[in-house]
Design brief:
The protein has 2 helices and 2 strands. It is of the alpha+beta class and 50 residues long. A two-stranded antiparallel ribbon has the order 1-2. The longest helix is centred in the N-terminal third of the chain and has 11 residues.
Length: 50
């Protein structure tokens, strides 16, 4: 969870990010992530290596 929180905090400050949330699922060790960006370019920027 510490890593998930750090990633969510970092992603939330990226330009164009509207929502980036991690959720614990009922299956141990599995998570769901909801990501929402202003447009496709913002989403691509999130996934492009620095």
């Amino acid at each position: 969870m510490r890593v998930a929180r750090a990633l969510a905090s970092a992603a939330a400050t990226e330009p164009g990010t509207l929502r980036y949330q991690w959720f614990v699922t009922q299956r141990p060790g599995h998570y769901s992530i909801i990501e929402e960006y202003v447009d496709a370019d913002a989403a691509e920027t999130h996934y492009r290596p620095s």
